[in-house]
């Protein structure tokens, strides 16, 4: 049965979004769709079995009840890594992966296979990098590249050189509005001339890049001390309040619905931030605000959380936290589907699969 391996140039580039969006779109067209993630790095106990949290989220969104251990036959845990580091040469796990894939794909019109990390390098230490797994499953490959600061066109060209015709194209994701013209008129034609077909350009989407205040608190190990009623509201970005008040005001106005990271001792910036109705305040250093701050926050319905880590450490973790939890919220499933349907050439993808 047809299958498609979806990899990416780097971790957190939009593989899950593309898998989910393509899956829901194909299902609406009447195709039965399976999902498989050969190697999972988000290991967790799911019911009575161990599985991958991202794979579980995609399976749930697609209405699949695939057993966690079957959906993700290889889980990267500390024990797995220890064994991999002590083995030379690598243990061949591709047969286990292929056997699980055969079961998952049985009876499906198409099975979407989600890669882990960066396609070329992630899992290389255990001989489970993207090219090895895709070749073992004999699948065509679609690569996602996220435009965080710039596109990874060199990596896209390297993947094409490595895979040849097995790579059916790429999708550029999270592209900011001001970069769209350059992508369409310069970069996409350049890639096409080098043999890399651009099958979609997905714009930056504020909803998909948001995370609930409650999820932020859980992942940061923080305590919400005010505004708990708004804990299900979402933060769409984050800013650091480590500047003078007048500079902070200018910066703050450019980032609505942001999580504001502040030192617990910066009551001046805390008051300014509350007046701007941010998604939440994250106070660092395990320092609690005074009663005036708490009263203002309660009146404005602005959640405040307190975390032990320093401002730098919290800021360093925030971007990966937002990226990791992009599709853990069921409210985003439909948004992902609409983005893919509107901005990805699904017909070209189907052609590459022989559907």
From TrEMBL:
Keywords: Acyltransferase, Transferase
GO molecular function terms noted in the UniProt entry: phosphate acetyltransferase activity
InterPro entries attached to this UniProt entry: DRTGG, P-loop_NTPase, Phos_Acetyltrans/Butyryltrans, Ser_kin/Pase_Hpr-like_N_sf
Sequence ranges assigned to domain DRTGG in this UniProt record: 216-320
Name of a matching Pfam family: DRTGG
Record-listed E.C. numbers: 2.3.1.8
Source domain of life: Bacteria
SUPFAM superfamilies: HprK N-terminal domain-like (SSF75138), P-loop containing nucleoside triphosphate hydrolases (SSF52540)
Subunit structure: Homohexamer.
The protein, known as: Phosphate acetyltransferase
Species of the source: Fundidesulfovibrio magnetotacticus
Gene: pta_3
